Amino acid sequence: MPHAKPRQIVIDTDPGIDDAIGILLALASPEFSIRGMTTVAGNIGLETTTRNASRLLAFAGQEDIPVLVGAAAPLSRPGPEPLNLHGKDGIGGVDLLDPVRQPENQSAVEWLADLLLSVPASTVDVLALGPLTNIARLILEKPAAAKRIGRIIAMGGVIHEAGNVGPRSEFNLWADPEAAAVVVPSGLPLVLVPLDVTRRVRATREFAQALRAAGKPLATMVADLIESYFETKTHQESRPLHDPCVMLFALAPELFRLEDLRLTVNTGSSEEAGALTIDEKGKLVQVAMGVEGPAVLDLLAAKLTAI
Ligand code: RIB
Ligand code: CA
After folding, report:
1. Fewer CB within a 10 Å sphere, N or C end of the chain?
2. Pairing verdict, β 256-265 and 149-155
3. Backbone phi, then psi, for 161, in 5-degree steps?
4. Ligand 1 pocket check: which of 21, 46, 155 to mutate, most ligand atoms within 8 Å of Cβ?
5. How far, in Å, from the CA of 13 to the mean position of ligand 2?
6. Backbone φ/ψ region at 101: left (φ over 0), alpha (ψ -120 to 50), beta
7. Residue with CA nearest ligand 1 atom 1
């Protein structure tokens, strides 16, 4: 059967080790036509997340893809402190050259709005890997363009398990709860990929070794990224691949189980900020609540070792 036309996507990201793995997966997947990457502060400051996005494109030889600088801080509260988990450079100190191409002059929101207004409606998906500030600002400032998004697939939130920054708060929604409170009830086609699922897609040292053994550049880089995770978490046997689950869902939704949940977002200042609650008054959102972990890891390895 002839290949389906590649799906146009924009990646909104705060690289971030797991973001970097998801970005390299997308760059290795001919199913995607990456129109651009928009950056946001989150795991580390905006200058570093933007530099990392550009370095990853340079490494993959795909600097034809533009990088657009987004939000340096959340909509209305101070940004989070950088997470040590990702190292001082935000991507575990892996060996990546500096990019030749610099980010575009246009802001992320302006560029995304222009793109969405220039293509047929519902033909561009946004894969969101960090705090939702850029997408919230698009919805607030450019609603006519935002309505033309095909689908937002966002790593974020937690439903039945404990959070990773608070009892029920996950980092991306906790970092900018006001942005999450704009995006979640927006009515735009949204698929949330929460910790309940991403914690079941785990990379081990053996998985990294198998990637390295393939002798392919992107697979070797992902092996380096995974192994850098273990430098800060030496006691752990495996690390969750949160953000790559967004690309894996886009590539193989049949490996995930979706539930339609009515959700509200906590915008308090407590440690509950960003927490999701199943609430009859909430907006209906598709949430990935199950995943075939081994199968999606096999898919990740297959894509990374194919080029
Ligand atoms: O909670 C996990 C999320 O927070 C991931 O996107 C990771 O990169 C961090 O941003
Ligand atoms: Ca991220």
Report:
1. N
2. unpaired
3. -105, 180
4. 155
5. 6
6. beta
7. 171
283-291 and 190-193 beta bridge pairing: parallel
Q: Residue 267 has what pLDDT?
A: 96
Ligand 1 pocket at CB < 6 A: 14, 16, 18-19, 42-43, 129-130, 155, 164, 170-172, 242-243
Q: Which atom of ligand 1 is nearest to the CA of 16?
A: 8
Kindly report, residue by residue over 132-188, the tens digit of the pLDDT: 999 999 999 999 999 999 999 999 999 999 999 999 999 999 999 999 999 999 999
User: What number is the average pLDDT over the span 227-243?
Assistant: 85
Q: Spell out the domains of the chain, with CATH numbers in brackets.
A: 7-304 (3.90.245.10)
Cα 125 to averaged position of ligand 1 atoms, centre (Å): 19
Q: How far is the CA of 242 from the centre of ligand 2 (A)?
A: 8
* Other beta carbons within 10 Å of 38: 29
Instruction: Report which ligand 1 atom has the smallest distance to the Cα of 86.
Output: 8
Can you give 229-254 as a three-state secondary structure string?
HHHHCCCCCEEECCCHHHHHHHHCHH
DSSP characters over 289-304: EEE-HHHHHHHHHHHH
> Which atom of ligand 1 is closest in space to residue 19's alpha carbon?
8
Between CA 304 and CA 288 the distance in angstroms is 23
Give me the phi and psi of 63, to 5 degrees please: -75, 5
- Nearest CA to 264 among 185, 153, 157? 185
pTM of whole model > 0.90? yes
Which one, of 222, 211, 174, 216, lies nearest residue 194 by Cα? 174
Pair 6, 26: CB distance under 8 Å: no
Ligand 2 centroid distance, CA of 259 (Å): 23
Active site residue 235: no
β-bridge pairing 202-204 and 256-265: unpaired
